[in-house]
Amino acid sequence: MRSSKKEIENIVKLFNRIGVETVAPCHCTGKKAIGIFGEKFAGNLLECCAGVTFEVSN
User: Fold this and answer.
1) pLDDT tens across 49-58, in order?
2) Strand, helix or coil at 45?
3) What is the rounded CA–CA span in Å between residue 30 and residue 43?
4) What is the rounded CA–CA span in Å between residue 22 and residue 26?
5) Domain that holds residue 13
6) The dihedral sign for the CA sequence 31, 5, 44, 25
7) At what angle do helices 5-18 and 31-40 cross, to 10 degrees?
8) Contact assessment for residue 26 and residue 49, using Cβ atoms and an 8 Å cutoff
9) How many domains does the chain fold into?
């Protein structure tokens, strides 16, 4: 939540470099970061909140 825009963008770059395709930030990530993730992972941002479960497949 307290990360700067630059720090968040560096995380997005790292995620891209390691092949992350989909992200599911929770409310504690913060609105600013969720917005940036939403821009960079357009179409691959999952809504996440307490109690949500995801099925992961290859």
Assistant:
1) 888 888 888 7
2) strand
3) 19
4) 13
5) 1-58
6) negative
7) 40
8) yes
9) 1
Q: Which residue has the tokens 């963008």?
A: 9
Contact 57, 33 (CB under 8 A): no
8 Å CB contact between 25 and 3: no
pLDDT digits (tens, 9 = 90+) for 5-36: 999 999 999 999 999 999 999 988 999 999 99
Output the pLDDT for position 44.
93
* 33 exposure class (CB count in 10 Å sphere: 0-12, 13-18, 19+): buried
Task: Quote the pTM value.
Answer: 0.80
Burial of 37 (0-12, 13-18, 19+ CB in 10 A): buried
Contact in structure between 42 and 22 (CB atoms under 8 Å): no
